[in-house]
Amino acid sequence: MPTIKFVTHDGNEQEVEAESGTTVMQAAMDNGIDAILAECGGACSCATCHCYVDEAWTDRMPEADEIEKDMLDCVLEPQDNSRLSCQITVTDDLDGIVIRLPESQY
């Protein structure tokens, strides 16, 4: 099972296991990662699952589609590596991915 390391804005780390085929958002929810609010439940309509893909992993990510890009325009603290965790599907190729979490979700 692939692992995901979540790193909060203040440096706390939590490593979790996730089923391939699920999303990074669902893995966060299943493991009590409080910084991922996921108010829309993964429908790509609220941006409360905003995260930063660690720079070492950005080249392995598919490009965000237009809907995700539009939602990312709504987040505070956007960065070039901003993504919505509901749009990142966990695969064996992402084993060990590091996901950094913003200070606040809106």
UniProtKB/TrEMBL annotation:
Signal peptide: none
Protein name: 2Fe-2S iron-sulfur cluster binding domain-containing protein
Keywords for this protein: 2Fe-2S, Iron, Iron-sulfur, Metal-binding
Requisite cofactors: [2Fe-2S] cluster
CDD domains found in the cross-reference section: fer2
All residue ranges annotated as the 2Fe-2S ferredoxin-type domain in the record: 2-105
Keyword hit for Magnesium: no
Lineage of source species: Bacteria, Pseudomonadati, Pseudomonadota, Gammaproteobacteria, Cellvibrionales
The species this protein was found in: Spongiibacter nanhainus
